[in-house]
């Protein structure tokens, strides 16, 4: 199986692109403070999945998935901060929260599946 075929990877890539579309419209100060952190954390979800996927040992792959999950919840925090500072609408925040919750479930399932057939 290829990395790009994994649904969890596809969803993590979509989340990062959806975040980008919003942040790119913000003013300089918002981009420079919250925006950069938000983009980095959202991009890190897929990046850590990629790095783990390329590892030889399943325990290493699982560890990078844990990093990915951490970045996912960091993204949720930055989105909440953006909403609190009136950079996101309630509808945008709810959409992102749904994406994050769905992705979180799939990521946990993926983590649990890694190495199932290994000793």
Describe the structure.
The protein is mainly α. It has helices spanning 7-23, 28-53, 58-84, 90-113. Helix 1 packs antiparallel against helix 2.
Can I get a quick summary?
This protein has 119 residues and is mainly alpha-helical. 79% of the residues lie in helices and 0% in strands. Helix 3 (58-84) packs antiparallel against helix 4 (90-113).
Mean pLDDT, as a whole number?
Answer: 95
Number of strands: 0
State which percent range the strand residues make up.
under 5%
Uncertain spans, ≥5 residues at pLDDT below 50? Answer: none
- What structural class is derived from the secondary structure elements? mainly alpha
**Termini distance?**
21 Å
Order of helices and strands: HHHH
Compile the SSE list and pairings.
Blueprint: H1 7-23, H2 28-53, H3 58-84, H4 90-113
Helix pairs in contact: 1-2, 1-4, 2-3, 3-4
What keyword list fits this structure?
single chain; de novo design (two linked rop proteins); 119 residues; mainly alpha; elongated
């Amino acid at each position: 199986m290829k990395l790009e075929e994994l649904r969890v990877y596809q969803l993590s890539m979509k989340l990062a692109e959806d975040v980008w579309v919003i942040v790119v419209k913000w003013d300089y100060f918002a981009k420079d403070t919250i925006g950069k952190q938000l983009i980095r954390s959202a991009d890190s979800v897929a990046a850590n999945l990629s790095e783990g996927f390329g590892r030889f040992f399943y325990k290493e792959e699982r560890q990078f998935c844990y990093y990915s999950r951490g970045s996912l919840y960091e993204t949720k925090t930055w989105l909440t901060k953006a909403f609190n500072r009136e950079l996101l609408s309630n509808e945008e925040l709810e959409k992102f929260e749904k994406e994050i919750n769905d992705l979180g479930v799939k990521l946990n399932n993926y983590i649990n599946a890694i190495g199932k057939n290994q000793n």
